[in-house]
Write a structure and sequence with these properties.
alpha+beta, six-stranded antiparallel sheet, elongated
Length: 296
């Protein structure tokens, strides 16, 4: 390993500075082009938020809260019930009821919906937004629909111990998963039903991309078992509108890696260089030099 010199350190800093300039120019330009592409395509985006489990406590296996947008509120009641030994969650809202099957264990010691298994049942408030095509970059997305309150449940198939090798067969058999999405229609929104139930099979999820149903189903899907996109590199993607900033950003990233390697290598020293004695390096070289025969 060669002796480090200030020249290598200066070269590394110069490469890092060039990488910073390259990334500083390309990344903001890439973000602007992606934003413009999404605005041209008018693709929907969905913001999701879940209430604090402690804010909706269960009392005697029932939890009640109110829901509404602009035209008033109405109570929503979620009740744990038993049907022939199988657990269900019954939703009551504006005179209508619906039973949602519960797969997995229920820990009644935990508050609110936290008592259900993770990625099993969630209550989500979904906000739909669409980018607004504008001349400036300061314009925020425009809300196009009232918020939706959705009870999302992922339901696994029943396990047959006579045929299945493991009691966890329903958990791992993702192809048999199905989703029930119970939408609570707020007062003031025209609808024939107070609760609308949407059912989606796991295999059909790619067909529902860019919909709020897809976003709600993802909320109760384990991160390691997300469905494959229908067209991973297809159209209507933000990167479709990126031109010159993309290769420039790639070059900037490569320069960043090279600069870090060069700058870091300038601090590496040989073992002899760490000896404080001034003649340590010369002595080490003499010891390594081959000795000549006496009669040479």
């Amino acid at each position: 390993m060669s002796r480090p010199t200030p020249r290598a350190r200066i070269l590394g800093l110069a490469i890092l500075a060039l990488a910073a300039i390259t990334l500083g120019v390309s990344l903001p330009a890439m973000a602007r082009q992606i934003r413009a592409q999404n605005a041209d395509a008018d693709l929907p985006f969905f913001g999701m938020r879940s209430p604090d489990p402690a804010a909706i406590p269960f009392v005697n296996d029932a939890a009640t809260f109110v829901w509404g947008v602009n035209a008033g509120t109405a109570p929503v009641t979620l009740t744990l019930v038993d049907r022939e030994g199988a657990p269900f969650l019954r939703a009551d809202y504006r005179g209508e009821s619906h039973l949602v099957a519960i797969t997995g264990t229920v820990d009644t010691r935990l508050p609110g919906l936290a008592r259900f298994r993770e990625n099993q049942i969630k209550l989500e408030v979904i906000t739909e937004q669409r980018p607004r095509l504008a001349a400036t970059d300061r314009d925020a997305p425009t809300k196009t629909a009232p918020d939706r309150l959705v009870l999302a449940a992922r339901i696994e198939r029943e396990v047959d111990l006579a045929k299945d090798a493991s009691p966890m067969a329903g958990v791992v058999d993702r192809k048999s998963w199905r989703y029930e999405l119970v939408e609570f229609v707020p007062l003031g929104v025209e609808s024939d039903r107070a609760m609308i139930v949407h059912e989606i099979a796991y295999a059909d999820m790619p067909e529902h991309e860019r919909t709020w149903q897809y976003a709600a189903a993802l909320a109760v899907t384990p991160p390691t078992k997300l469905p494959k996109l229908k067209e991973p590199m297809g159209s209507n993607r933000g990167l479709d509108g990126v031109t010159w900033p993309f290769p420039l950003a790639g070059a900037g990233g490569l320069l960043l890696v090279i600069g870090v390697m060069v700058f870091g290598s300038s601090f590496v020293k040989r073992p002899a260089d760490s000896d404080p004695r001034p003649d340590a390096g010369a002595r080490a070289r003499e010891e390594k030099a081959p000795s000549r025969p006496a009669n040479a």
